[in-house]
Amino acid sequence: MLEVSGLRKRYGGVVAVDGVSLRAGKGETIGLLGPNGAGKTTTVSMIAGLVRPDAGEVRIAGRAMRGDTDPAKRSMGLVPQDIGLYEEISPRENLHLFGSLYGMEGAALRRAMDEALDLVGLKERARDSVRDFSGGMKRRLNLAAALLHDPQLLLLDEPTVGVDPQSRNAIFDNLELLKKRGKTLLYTTHYMEEAERLCDRLVIIDHGKIIADDTLQGLHRLMPARSVLRLELTAGARGGLRVEDLRQVPGVESAEMRDGTVQIGVRDLAGDAPVILGWMTERGHRFEHVASERASLETVFLTLTGRSLRD
Amino acid sequence: MRTAFLALVRKDLRLFLADPRAVMMSVVAPIAIASFFGYIFGGGAGNQEHSRIPVLVSDLDGTALTRDVVRRLAADSELDVKPATPEEGREAVRKGKATVAFVMPKNFTVEATRALLAGGEKPVLSMRFDPSHALEMRMLQGMLAGAVMSAAGRQLSGGRELTAPFQVNSEAVTSGRGITYNGYAHSFGGMGIQFLLMVGVEVGVKLLLHRQQGVWKRMRAAPLSRTMLLGSRAVSSGITSMGTLIILFAFARVVFGVRIQGSMAGFLAVCAAFSLLTAAFGLLIASVGKTADTTRGIAILATLFMVMLGGAWVPTFIFPKWLQAITVAIPTRWAMDGLDAVTWRGLGFSAVALPVALLAGCALLFGAVAVSRFRWEAD
Fold first, then answer.
1. Same domain, A137 and A274
2. What distances in angstroms separate CA A256 from CA A67, A191, B271, one per listed residue?
3. What strands, in cross-sheet order, belong to the sheet with A252-258?
4. Domain boundaries in chain B?
5. Shortest distance, CA B181 to any CA of chain A (angstroms)
6. CATH value at residue A179
7. Which residues are CB-neighbours of A250 under 8 A, at least 6 positions away?
8. Which of A44, B34, B51, B65 is most buried, by the most CB atoms less than 10 A from its CB?
């Protein structure tokens, strides 16, 4: 459905996107992950035709996209990161406008508006002013506005930014429904849990370059550890611990020190944790808090880039 | 394409009307200022009691002739004549409380009569004037000469008035006999033009701001040409501008009796062409501007220059010749000339054909530059 090859965009001396290539098959949901400034929005903007790439090509359903009026744009729906709605008018008026931009009119447009409002649960508020909506409601309407012309490919640029957990869940339910209907979704986010819940495949981008492109299972295989043990050291113990020594302890797959907390990757939490804690205690490396968690995509990202997704 | 274009135009109009306070201001403000300017610059209705020229007279001679001169001047409806000492007169002129102060010296009557009959030395009549009112001073010199000649003639001829040996028949040339000049026609045209250009500036600035918002991305993601996106904005802006002008002139007609004495089609053509020009001006601003704040400041300055030089504040015939020659190249001048022609001058469509063509041509030029130069990607 979507083929992107060698996309490149430079702003002055900064290369925002550097040779990005990716594919999304029909009905597939691709997560485009990366920290702020990684090049996600620029990539989506080039795919949507908002930004002209310096190099590279975007193909929709096998056809290269060219120019502002390319009919291939009818196969795409964009959910911009900023709320793309007019607050002065009602949801129905907004949807009427955005449907009309794709040549829709009359009964077909009214039906599409009803369906979209129904999907996002705003049918009862269709004639209110958007200005009076909560952030979550605006986000849901922002999604509905991209669905009117029934696009096969949906580009979602961080569609849950700044919304409460309840609205985020509602948006996720909507997206899962769209996925079931066979839509292709390209979903940019820096929230790992969102990507893990929704995406079939994940493309990790950093400094404008793709550094990993695999399924969730494939990315998990990249991880050296299955669990992460976090020990928050006491103030006095922070200077004395050398992570190089810790890495020699049996069962330790990786060890990193960050802000007084040591993060230790292990394969067998139940077996390895007592050994590690004993080793720490014997050598007087005192800690005041212990936590453990299953290794996640965050760990993958940290492993691949050396920095957190939310940096 | 048609559906999308109409939807975009309708959206702009809907957003304009969604803010009743802004709508009111876009109409009320020009009406208020145009009413003020119309009143000041000799509006036809209810403006008979205009300011009279304050004149102070020091009659040091105190004869029947000098008193007659003062009486004649005081009788003139254009003057507000009051007695004062020479010192008081000079001080009042210096402070701006009087336009002219003159002194008729002692022995004025004797010396003036002798000079008139025997050609002796003429007495000196001192006149102090406010340099910012040089025109009034010259006018008063003429009136004073007339008053002295009449008073002296009456005295010398034993009661018979000595008057000018001709009569003047002056006629204000307007659109027809019996139709008086209505200053509100010019002021409403002028203020309409000024405020429409301001609306054009706002169109441009909003477009710059709009470019950074999600709705703009959504529109750009749709299969629409750039000409359609900007063109729809121009058309909607043109419609609101045209509506504003028509409301202004409707108000002027009802309240101040301003009539379209000439071609109605010509009037509508000038309004339409200028509305289109303001819309294109807005797009041009958006295409050359970088940030909204700096663009707004520069555009307002440019607008005020255009309005001022186009004769929207005061008619261009007041300007010096060299400045009048320059203003011929300014679009606001074409619009003002066109509106003046079809309102109080009462001329036909042919009188506005050239201004309309120039305005439309300029609008097309601005629009073409805007489409080619507009930066579609926000910084």
1. no
2. 49, 22, 73
3. A252-258, A261-266, A227-233, A287-294
4. 12-44+182-373, 53-156
5. 45
6. 3.40.50.300
7. A272, A275
8. B34
What range defines the domain where residue A253 resides? Answer: 227-294
Q: What is the ipTM of this complex?
A: 0.77
Do A46 and A18 contact (CB within 8 A), yes or no? no
- Residue B158 amino acid letter: G
Q: How many CB atoms lie within 10 A of CB B88?
A: 16
Maximum pairwise Cα distance, chain A? 78
Print the SS3 string covering A260-310: CEEEEEECCHHHHHHHHHHHHHHCCCCEEEEEEEECCHHHHHHHHHCCCCC
Model's pTM, two decimal places?
0.72
| C-alpha distances in Å from residue B185, one per residue of A30, A212, B35, B331, B371 | 65, 72, 10, 19, 35
Decide which of 3.60.40.10, 3.30.420.40, 3.40.50.620, 3.40.1710.10 is the CATH code for B53-156.
Answer: 3.40.1710.10
Instruction: Determine the 3-state secondary structure of A116 from DSSP.
Output: helix
In a domain, A208, yes or no: yes
B318 shares contact with chain A (CB less than 8 Å) = no
Predicted local confidence at residue B248, as pLDDT: 93
Across A169-183, B38-52, B148-162, which has the greatest mean pLDDT? A169-183
Which of A10, A48, A242 lies closest to A153, judged by CA?
A: A48
Using the Cα atoms of residue B215, residue B216, residue B220 and residue B223 in order, give the sign of their dihedral. positive
When CB atoms are compared, the residue of B11, B14, B217 closest to A50 is: B217
What value does the mean pLDDT take over residues A152-170? 86
Residue B63 makes CB contacts below 8 A (sequence gap 6+) with B108, B109
Determine the 3-state secondary structure of A155 from DSSP: strand
A251 and A167, same structural domain? no
Q: Which two tokens stand for residue A243?
A: 């992570």
Question: In whole angstroms, what is the distance from residue A82 CA to residue A98 CA?
Answer: 16
Domain boundary residue among A152, A185, A218? A218
Residue A142 touches chain B, beta carbons under 8 Å: yes
Contact B228, B372 (CB under 8 A): no
Q: Decide if A83 and B214 are in contact by the 8 Å CB cutoff.
A: yes
Task: Confirm if B35 and B256 have CB atoms less than 8 A apart.
Answer: yes
The SS3 of residue A243 is: helix
Report the residue of chain B nearest A109, measured CA to CA. B3
Nearest to A59 by CA among A121, A137, A3: A3
DSSP string for A83-108: --S-TTS-HHHHHHHHHHTTT--HHH
Looking at chain A, the number of H-run helices and the number of E-run strands are 10, 14
Cβ–Cβ below 8 Å for B223 and A68: yes
